[in-house]
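Two quick folds needed for the group meeting slides. Do the first one here.
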Amino acid sequence: MSRATRNTRSGAAGPRIRVVPAAGAVLYRMDGTSPRVAVVHRPRYDDWSLPKGKVDPGESLPVTAVREIEEETGFTSVLQSRIGTTAYPLKENTRKEVTYWAALARGGRFEANSEVDEIRWLSVGDAGDLVSYALDRKILKRFDAAHRADSVLMLVRHAKAGRRSQWSGDDALRPLDKTGRTQAELLAPMLSAFGVRRLYSAPRVRCEQTLGPLSDELGVEIGSEPALSDEAHAADPDAARVRLVELAAGPGVAAVCSQGAAIPGLIDDLATRAGVDMAETATKKAGTWALGFDGSALVYADYYISPLPAV
């Protein structure tokens, strides 16, 4: 595991704090209507904890979480809602920050390895009794209280496409610039961490290109969604919302790429109808929302400001 870090300051005149970013998950599978969560034993520390690990160079936090889960437990998984971040000191002026997700186990088989020699699948309560650290118990309590969606959709704003004022042709044909193409490449592994298998785009070249690398990787076509452009949303926001919910309800996880005015409007509308408190819905280019639904009702909305590496 790498020791990727970033620096921050504790105050204007305080010492420089080195932050070690990491990611993990409450990995679970369903036993009837109840989740059973994975707790791992690490022989190096002789402790019981949730699977987690440090960011490798070039990784975003979601990608780290899925990789670490598989390395420690042998199970592939898809991320769902973001549960929270814990922090604790490693040594003087160094702090480790671990971001956790709920992660649904897909397939795999545990084999003892150098990091983990035992795994147990337990009820949330029993897992809380077994884990060695209070911070893990805190994450388990948040997982237990969180809404679990029956469908998930990733709503993506297109990556950078240069200045509109510098493009003389039809704006619908304006392509991604160099930075945007890099963002699109990095979006592919991040969206894959959430299990995306279906792709849709507003009819704009820059939106289609944003999902292009993942389309190539999955070998699936990008469906055109005229109702989800800025102009169509402004003309009929109800139709845009209904169509987004329809796409979310399809088989597997969908990613939809849209534009900077439609996305905040859609999320505000969904949140208001569901009584979900949203402080801010403005979305940066290549920013992504993970939207969880219970039927047609929004139950969570997690914002990922960028697909760029954590460090």
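Then this one, please, same format:
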Amino acid sequence: MFRIRVADVVVEIDNRHNFVFEKCRDYLCYEEKSAFRVAVSEAEVRAFLVESARPMTPPEAESHLIYRQICRSMPDYGVFLLHAAVIEMDGRGYAFSARRGVGKSTHASLWQTHFAGRATVINGDKPLVRRAPDGRFWVYGTPWCGKEGLQVNRKCPLTAICFLERGEQNAMTVSSVADTAARLMEATLAPTDPAGRDRLAVLIGAVVRDVPAFTLTCRPDVEAVERAYEYLATL
């Protein structure tokens, strides 16, 4: 059992496998009080291994289920999961969200290459977004970050969200309110209880209202990065 701090929330993890502890090492904290506790049973791990679409070990399954529990509890604290690769550049955070297989990790890597020394991947797949008391949104690294393992334990302002789509041409357009809300709901994990789902809906609504959102139709090339940066740098 150990505690971590993610998105400024202290969580106690009752783990069975050391894999989870090692994964979370950069986020360990030693405060006596935690906001909530998560644990996964052996039966839950076995069931998940049967239903999972990809092969994994029991420790990996436990880790996945633990983060699922964490994310479903986070809206109680003004925090939600966003499936996205988040780039920090010049003190600003850009979240690139996409459906599986579209290439958000490739796009994030292109930013790192093209803007070497300036662009940092805060999290490559599963960051957390927090609404601060002043209403601003911040995006945080987490230990859970995709198969590439790209993450750092720090936060940055969420300046914009880009939804990636494959295309023959690189083009950036403003996303509609309805499309932004729908895509954000696809890219998060809802709590199981009605009150938690209501809190998540409020958070998503505030993001739609306060954070600019775009659709980037693109090829997997540097020109896509340049086109995106032309828009995002002006915000």
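Slide caption for protein two: The chain has a mean pLDDT of 94.
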